[in-house]
């Protein structure tokens, strides 16, 4: 049984090597990677990090939206026994970054890069606007190559895999993530045939616990939208069977639908309400499904949805009723409640600042 996330990847590569593991969209075109291709890419990235003196006690800090490159670099760092800190690029992280003083950073774009004061090994994904910074020793993700093979994949199951920052740091170990993945796969009856969409920001522990780790354990397909702005269109194209969301993300979809409903008093508006009302009559339920509920699920990109997951606070009663009428009832999985500091990631001043905020 795999002890770490990279070991789970290697197991999928050995058992299901040619199967599609990951899809991502660029310039409107979907690209695919098989499990064996992913394992090879992660191994090459691990070798490149190793050549740059990344070791088991090091951490890669990633400031990025959900991008497949960020995921592969995270697995490469964990391959070497290191950990990964994930920050939301939409937030102002400058104060925290000044305390952490990371040695290895992956920045999504210029905005993320400008949050950094001190830096040593900095990779970037999107080079637009970086011309004046390219003399600062920045490395394009695509140029992160190695001339030697990677060391053996680390096997320490109790080591930190991810660190997240909210009020206090939250550290998740490999064993926690894989145990949680096994529990979710068993409870939700997940299989390798699932299609999942990675549309949430990476800097959320629920993404690691209820999407990334189950993906590696169950071997289903993980899909990355082109951008946050295209996630709804991309979801409609894919028709995922597994969706992970929060109260806010489900509420956003509900609002999007409600804003496009027919005007009150029209026949279409009356039909909408008639179709969503519960009924004991089979014919009415059948008509309501094909005339309203099924088209609405198609518009939401949820026509094939089998496993709707909810992380964090429950849906509002209005949202629960709305999605329930469509036959969508998200199952709640809670974020972890225990928060622990990872001392080797924090400077002395950062620990003092965190202590002051929590006491």
Automatic annotation (TrEMBL):
Q: Which InterPro entries match?
A: AMP-dep_synth/lig_dom, ANL_N_sf
Signal sequence interval, chain numbering: none
Region span, Disordered? 337-359
AMP-dependent synthetase/ligase domain span:
12-133
| Top-level lineage group | Bacteria
Any GO molecular function: ligase activity
Name recorded for this polypeptide = AMP-binding enzyme
What species was this sequence derived from? Pseudomonas extremaustralis
């Amino acid at each position: 049984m795999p002890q770490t996330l990279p070991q789970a990847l290697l197991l999928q590569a050995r058992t299901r090597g040619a199967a599609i593991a990951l899809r991502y969209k660029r310039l409107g075109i979907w690209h695919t990677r098989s499990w064996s291709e992913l394992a090879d890419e992660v191994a090459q990235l691990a070798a490149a990090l190793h050549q740059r003196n990344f070791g088991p006690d090091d951490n890669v800090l990633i400031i990025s939206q959900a991008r497949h490159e960020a995921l592969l670099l995270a697995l490469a760092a964990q391959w070497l026994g290191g950990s990964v800190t994930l920050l939301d690029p939409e937030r102002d992280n400058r104060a925290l970054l000044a305390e952490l003083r990371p040695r290895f950073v992956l920045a999504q774009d210029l905005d993320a890069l400008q949050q950094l004061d001190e830096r040593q090994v900095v990779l970037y994904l999107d080079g637009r606007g970086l011309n004046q910074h390219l003399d600062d020793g920045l490395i394009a993700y695509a140029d992160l190559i190695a001339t030697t093979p990677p060391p053996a994949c680390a096997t320490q199951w109790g080591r930190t895999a991810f660190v997240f920052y909210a009020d206090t740091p939250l550290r998740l170990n490999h064993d926690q993530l894989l145990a949680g993945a096994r529990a979710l796969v068993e409870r939700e009856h997940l299989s390798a045939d699932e299609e999942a969409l990675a549309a949430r920001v990476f800097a959320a522990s629920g993404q690691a616990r209820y999407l990334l780790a189950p993906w590696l354990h169950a071997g289903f397909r993980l899909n990355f939208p082109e951008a946050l702005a295209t996630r709804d269109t991309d979801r409609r194209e894919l028709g995922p069977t597994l969706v992970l969301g929060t109260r806010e993300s489900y509420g956003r979809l509900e609002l999007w639908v409600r804003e496009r409903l027919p005007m009150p008093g029209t026949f279409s508006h009356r039909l909408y309400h008639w179709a969503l009302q519960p009924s004991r009559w089979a014919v009415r339920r059948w008509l309501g499904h094909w005339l309203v509920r099924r088209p609405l699920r198609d518009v939401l990109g949820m026509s094939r949805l089998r496993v709707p997951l909810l992380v964090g606070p429950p849906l509002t009663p209005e949202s629960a009723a709305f999605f329930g009428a469509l036959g969508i009832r998200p199952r709640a999985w809670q974020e972890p409640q225990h928060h622990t500091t990872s001392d080797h990631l924090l400077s002395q001043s950062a620990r003092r600042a965190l202590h002051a905020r929590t006491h």
